[in-house]
Amino acid sequence: MKNKIIVTGGCGYIGSHTVIELIENDFEVVIFDDLSNSTEKTISRIHKITGVKPTFIKVDLKNQEATSKAFEAHKDTLGVIHFAAHKAVGESVEKPLMYYKNNLYSLLNVLESQNENNINNFIFSSSATVYGTPNTLPITEKNETQRPFSPYGNTKKIAEEILDDFTKSSQDFSAISLRYFNPIGAHESGEIGELPNGIPNNLMPYITQTAAGVRDKLMVYGNDYPTKDGTPIRDYIHVVDLAKAHVLAVKRLLKKEQETALEYFNLGTGLGYSVLDVIKTFEKVTESKLNYEITDRRDGDVPQLYASTDLAKEKLGWSADRALEEMISSSWTWEQNLRNETK
Ligand code: UFG
Questions:
Q1: Which atom, in ligand 1's list, is nearest to the CA of 148?
Q2: Does the beta carbon of 232 lie inside 6 Å of ligand 1?
Q3: Does 131 qualify as catalytic in the annotation?
Q4: Nearest CA to ligand 1 atom 7
Q5: How much distance in Å is there from the Cα of 294 to the middle of ligand 1?
């Protein structure tokens, strides 16, 4: 019998790529998703890519009763990867209560249901945003966390604190929190990728939508930061590399290799690229010119954020191998496929 894993938010961007990697590593996958920011079409695309159709349950994890029922039907699960959450930084500033309610109720309901059913392994989808404005770079897991700028970011920090308390209170429960830097890129098949809702907040989908003619112009938020070209530096990571780290984290929990009941790992490449680096690489890869303009800084952006990935390498045996060019070309292929589909 295969080891069964529940993936909440498995129809979403990082979730769907992780489902593929899990299937390819011979896990049985059950997806819980409310489809609030994703589509059920993703299930058939995963089927097309892997030859396996994961079980899908449409469930609103904010609803305790519904969550409990969904878990009840899958008591024989060995672990949960919890992606399901709202993730738009700007929206979270406008609607903080919606973000706290959705992201934290869901987490609590999932943990409670796991507890009821003795499902003792948990992987959390966290973010580098928990480091706030770091004083030292590259960021190691030993860097102190700070209150993130946005309510969205704060839900990640609070979630980690909840996990810290819960793992301490329970003999059997183990968790790994994976702190993502800047995930971009799409699956090489061109079948799945990011589906931003409305106007994208993030750089990569904004670039590809501008190049595809959906947006007029990319606004570059500030060129007066203390960096080599004045634009902020980030650690962009290919979503497929990120997905592979989740499989290794699951295996670490199942083999009971973790050293503490709650572990944290940075997931990035360790390389920093500026906004202008990304634009120039996009222009090179696509042999086109991007329409962009420098404008004022955006609130909450930090000048530089890039990871030390030593711990993930040492403990998970993981490192990212896809370079920026591949991240960008796969994002572009995905954008073009999306446009052809909506024509
Ligand atoms: N940027 C632009 N123009 C845009 C969009 C982004 O210039 O239209 C710039 C930003 O100012 C920033 C860089 O591109 O310098 C990257 O911005 P993203 O929005 O793509 O990524 P962030 O680093 O701001 O966001 C990431 C994650 C969030 C997380 C946040 C915390 O996507 O989930 O880090 O730092 F909350």
A1: 31
A2: yes
A3: no
A4: 220
A5: 15
For the stretch 185-235, pLDDT in tens is 999 999 999 988 889 999 999 999 999 999 999 999 999 999 999 999 999
User: How would DSSP label each residue in 134-164?
Assistant: -SSSSBPTTSPP---SSHHHHHHHHHHHHHH
For 82-119, write each residue's pLDDT tens digit.
Answer: 999 999 999 999 999 999 999 999 999 999 999 999 99
Measured CA to CA, the distance from residue 4 to residue 22 in angstroms comes to 10
Q: How far apart are CA 188 and CA 280, in angstroms?
A: 22
* Whole-number percent of the chain with pLDDT over 70: 99
Q: Which of 86, 89, 160 to mutate to test the pocket of ligand 1 (most atoms within 8 A of CB)?
A: 89
Distances (CA, A) of 338 to 154, 211, 329: 32, 13, 14
- Rounded to a whole number of angstroms, the distance between the first and last alpha carbons of the chain is 43
pLDDT of 343 reads 60
DSSP state of 74: T
Residue 109 tokens, joined: 């309901």
Tell me how far apart the alpha carbons of residues 104 and 171 are, in angstroms, rounded to a whole number. Answer: 23
Contact 201 CB / ligand 1 (< 6 Å) = yes
